[in-house]
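Morning run. Coffee first, then this:
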Amino acid sequence: MKKLTEKVNGARIAERIDQLSRCSEPAIGVTRLSFTKEFQCAQNMVEQWMLEAGMTVRKDSLNNLIGRYEGSNPNAPVLMIGSHLDTVIEGGKFDGMLGIVTGIEIVAVLFETGIILENPIEVIAFCDEEGVRFHSTFLGSKAIAGTLKREELEVKDDEGITLANAIKELGLDPLNYKEAARVPEEVLAYIELHIEQGPVLQAEEIPCGVVTGIAGASRYSFTIEGFAGHAGTVPHTLRKDALAGSAELVLEIERLAKENAPIVATVGKLSVKPGSSNVIAGEVAGTIDIRDTDERRKRKVLEAIFQSGEEIASHRGLKIHFEKVMEVSPVLCSEELIPIIESSIRENGMDPVRLISGAGHDAMAMADLTKVGMIFVRCRDGISHHPDEHASLEDMEIGARVLLDTVLQVIHSKVAAKTEV
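And here it is:
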């Protein structure tokens, strides 16, 4: 097993990621939105690499690109490896791409050494995870998981083009979207390798780690109403300053998050009215994003935030209103796959580190279809969704070895289980 993993070619992974980064709108970093000519450019590259790695290649009814490396038993459930091919605007070149290219690399190692495992392997380049163009995330993985809804075909981009029309422009029939869905009996597991998008692995000085769960997210908007007044004539004791109340709320949200770690809570947007330097703020609108893998703890902190908001408003003579914008449930990675990934990390000379993902991934949608596992690879300074996003060649190669070891162990354990039965 160790000799096989040493055949992983980190330089090939790095070169292919660099090539994919050129499929971009002219801008700083990488901008590659779904169902665009830049996306088609990337798909063409990935398709060629899949073919070179001994895979048959097809596109499903939602334009997910799927490469299949057949097993000795083509009727055995398939082990899926995947990530997304779209990017944010002016993003980095590793987010999503690393998982796809690494999946192709480990299949290439099997193909080049003439190894055929019992179970087929599919590498999937999902069509839209980021949700930048159509403002709706996980479109590709939800289609495969069978959870995409008919109404999501009508979501529009900023030019008014619907997802259905974008699919039609590729020569596909959007009404066939259900044909992309797979059934659980056909799938052994789903494994995703991804840059961490955070600083934990760098702080631990470890190239990769195992993900135990993906945080659920609650997003709320809030409005605080006060009373605008002249900045020079209204004493502080008589003010109803909506911005001062908002500032107090922001600090309270931060305090509650720190006290309930590893939960994270962010006020990412504030809009102040009337927004003049010499006028007391009469109204502030803002957003709260709170994430955790523990739904009960998240709910407890949210209730504390709501209560604190009411108390702050009452004390300052303000009015406050919260409104739910989005709710995404957390996903826990498979208790079967976590120890296998940890074993693979040990095989490569590291002590396993368990991490929680605060960012969403296609694995969240795929968990509705099958058990999921995730491997994180260290990224420099935890920077992601930015042109400075970076993973070293050495770390990428180690991540690929861990992924290959994991694939071998997952399929071997399945074979062993069959034998014992």
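Residues 150 and 189 are 26 Å apart (CA to CA). Good start to the day.
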